[in-house]
Design a protein that fits this description.
single chain; two-stranded antiparallel ribbon; 12 helices
């Protein structure tokens, strides 16, 4: 049984008890997990289980955590907590546990809360500073804003080329979706963009940080989408 399975098995009762509340929380519309990422996830878990902590840490931290992989973010914190391949630093671990728990995953939230209870007020304050930096780098809001801008660029490029995202005379080849008509492909992009914006707006309400530039950026993106929609309507 590897580390992913051990953690999931040990906390399954808590997850079942929390399922009613978690059902109302929208699933995270992040980047699609391709086969390469799945292989990386399997490989890094095997490296950790075999004791190759230095290599495992680099993959968790550099390759998976920036993709919004909450398990990888948790594992970075776990390795700092236990001193596996890195200095044993519970303050750093708490900052990582916090970013890993931002979607409300019960098992990770429990680990975060239990760790926080063992730290002093000064240690928690230090973790607050580290968490602020991690949030600016790795939070769901930061990740989704990048993905929203990418989706928007795809739709904008079609319009600027004189076409329309709804054009049926186009053929698009995408490694994730295969060969598709322009209408179907851009419909996928538009729906994905809508899901991401809906999730982001929910996050603004749930985690409204005073002076957060991302809140302003979200408003600017929505305004740009409205302008783009108007342009598309003119061309149809």
């Amino acid at each position: 049984m590897n580390i992913r399975q051990s953690i999931a098995f040990g906390l399954i009762a808590l997850m079942i008890a929390s399922v009613a509340s978690s059902q109302s929380y929208p699933s995270f519309p992040g980047e699609e997990t391709d086969q390469r990422t799945l292989r990386t996830q399997e490989r890094v878990d095997e490296l950790f289980d075999s004791g190759a902590y230095d290599r495992a840490y680099r993959i968790y931290r550099r390759d998976l955590a920036p993709r919004g992989d909450k398990y990888a973010q948790y594992m970075v914190g776990y390795m700092h907590l236990t001193g596996a391949g890195v200095p044993q630093e519970p303050v750093v671990a708490l900052a990582w546990y916090r970013i890993a728990a931002e979607r409300g995953e019960p098992s990770v939230s429990l680990a975060r809360d239990k760790l926080e209870k063992t730290l002093t007020a000064s240690q928690i304050a230090a973790a607050d500073v580290l968490f602020a930096d991690l949030r600016n780098e790795l939070s769901d809001r930061v990740l989704l804003l990048k993905l929203v801008r990418h989706d928007l660029a795809i739709l904008r490029s079609s319009v600027s080329a004189g076409g329309s995202p709804g054009a049926v005379n186009m053929t698009v080849i995408d490694r994730r979706y295969g060969v598709a008509s322009g209408a179907y492909y851009y419909q996928i992009i538009q729906k994905r963009l809508d899901r991401r914006l809906t999730y982001l707006k929910g996050q603004v309400k749930v985690v409204d940080i005073e002076g957060d530039p991302h809140t302003k950026e979200l408003g600017e993106i929505e305004l740009e989408i409205k302008k783009l929609a108007a342009e598309i309507n003119k061309q149809q």
